[in-house]
């Protein structure tokens, strides 16, 4: 599980941007942090402070994701996943429609690896809650599948029309 977490974090950091100067997330986060620190003492590089705060929260989310324990923090892991996906949209420039022409394999492949490894590492944590829910939704306690029973009810109601 720890290896899957490390692979997903590395793939997150290697997602390439689709903006004009397609930069990987690792370089962008580093650049935003340097600008944030320099803005206290020198003239800043012209990067908005909101994005620097986003970089700090993204790094914090990555650290929280790596430090989460096995089964106890599954909803925190789900929150980390959603937060990291939203930060990918901001960091890579995927919100701008003009950038869609620049989508390359440097964006798609690391994003798919990040998504795949993140879901694989968290799949077993949610499996214990999904199986009883799936069983409750598919059977009514007597072994009959609910969709089959609904189909029977629907077919009987059509006969009376």
Automatic annotation (TrEMBL):
Keywords: Membrane, Transmembrane, Transmembrane helix. The keyword Membrane applies. The keyword Membrane applies. The chain crosses the membrane at residues 12-34, 46-68, 75-94, 100-118. It comes from the Bacteria. This is Uncharacterized protein.
């Amino acid at each position: 599980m720890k290896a899957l977490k490390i692979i997903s974090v590395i793939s997150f950091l290697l997602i390439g941007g689709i903006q004009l100067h397609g930069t990987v997330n690792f370089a962008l986060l580093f650049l935003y942090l340097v600008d944030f620190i320099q803005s206290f003492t020198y003239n800043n590089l012209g990067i908005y402070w909101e994005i620097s705060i986003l970089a700090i929260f993204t790094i914090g989310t990555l650290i929280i994701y790596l430090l989460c324990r096995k089964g106890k923090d599954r909803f925190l892991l789900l929150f980390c996943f959603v937060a990291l996906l939203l930060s990918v949209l901001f960091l890579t420039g995927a919100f701008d429609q003009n950038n869609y022409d620049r989508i390359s394999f440097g964006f798609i492949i690391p994003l798919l690896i990040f998504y795949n490894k993140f879901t694989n590492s968290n799949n077993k944590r949610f499996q214990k809650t999904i199986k009883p829910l799936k069983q409750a939704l598919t059977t009514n306690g007597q072994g009959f599948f609910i969709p089959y029973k609904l189909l029977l009810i629907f077919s009987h109601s059509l006969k009376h029309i």
